Amino acid sequence: MYNVSLQRGGKTTLSFPKHYTTTLVTVEGSIRVNEQEEVAADHFVLFKNDGENFTVEATSDALILVLSGEPIAEPIAAYGPFVMNTRQELIQAFQDFEQGKFGELK
């Protein structure tokens, strides 16, 4: 995980293993990826697992979050903010949440 801050016109190249799943989120500003696609704030890019390098250029002052890692190759079940492996685990997580088992924020 990288938190990248670029000034307008700033450019960086990032490299990850070819088989990793990699995504970036534009938190603030706007960027251009691989000299092609412009990505505005609150948008993300999910890269195909077919290359090791990508270039990011800030088209305005920008803050981006880059996430990359080995795929876990597990099933996914998602509902609202919950992501589990099975529907049953999802139901259990929702019940645990409703019963206050996730703790409290104060």
From TrEMBL:
Coiled coil: none annotated. Pfam families: Pirin_C. GO terms for molecular function: quercetin 2,3-dioxygenase activity. The keyword Ion transport does not apply. This is Putative Quercetin 2,3-dioxygenase. Its EC number is 1.13.11.24. SUPFAM superfamilies: RmlC-like cupins. Transmembrane segments: none annotated. Keywords: Dioxygenase, Oxidoreductase. Residues 2-103 form the Pirin C-terminal domain. It comes from Capnocytophaga canis. InterPro entries: Pirin_C_dom, QDO-related, RmlC-like_jellyroll, RmlC_Cupin_sf.
